[in-house]
Amino acid sequence: MADKKDIDFTYTVIDKIFRLGIGEMGDFSGARYNGDFSLTLEEAQKAKHQFMCDQLNIGKGTRVLDMGCGWGPFLRYISEKGANGIGLTLSDGQYEACRKNGLDVHIKDVRTVTPGDFGTFDAIVSVGAFEHFCSLEEFMEGKQEKIYRDFFETVYHLLPVGGRFYLQTMTFGKNMVDVKDMDLKADKDSNVYITALVAKYFPGSWLPYGSEMIVRNAEPFFKLVNISSGRLDYIETTNQWRKRIWKFSVKKYLLFLRLLPEVFFNKEFRLKLEVLRSAANKKCFEREIMDHFRIVFERK
Which CATH number do you get for residue 26? Predict the structure, then answer.
């Protein structure tokens, strides 16, 4: 799994730049346009949050755990409905931003949560965190499916019978390349280069192979309620993020300038910026190297 250092590399480094572009409590996960791409990014994110609430029966007094809460957009949304939310993250930047905004957030590995930590919950959500549970090394060692089964068992013990779990995650798609072929020295528009670059952007992280792998490993503990692909939605979300992140503002570009030493002396950081510049993540979805799923489970 991506450890705290890996998560900080992916999220804390871009914390301030992202929030200046997307908003103080920006949602760094795919929105839900559901075919209507005339929606603004904010409207589509709100539609996703409402969909999550509807699927999980979240309302006044509902106790909710957000596993990988980001900057707290969903916690804020459910608080306005009278629900009680607790968020978990491994990013110092996200933790500090959430606490500053009055959210009940803790730094903790979501895979190690037990009822003894925060009690049990009526509903649990995990938006994006699942992508970081298995590392490339663990995949190569054949541990990926056990990691997922163990995680679903963890969630199982935090819910009552009939309690629901919303999982939103990227997966590898039908055109994913063989891991042995990924190459940062290949042609920069090739699939093998793009996948290698994205792997650098998310150190310590490796995706599940399709929704089938996820559902299979959840099956001992959960029944499937709802599943849908958000691949096209993620492409549009990425389009909107890029417009906002690169839009000029004095504060934002002063932060860019402060990162120049990292650009010159840190090769890993340069590769990270190359992902943003080249829209490699977006290309993975356009070429169906990656897919994106929203899955609702109910505890058996």
Answer: 3.40.50.150
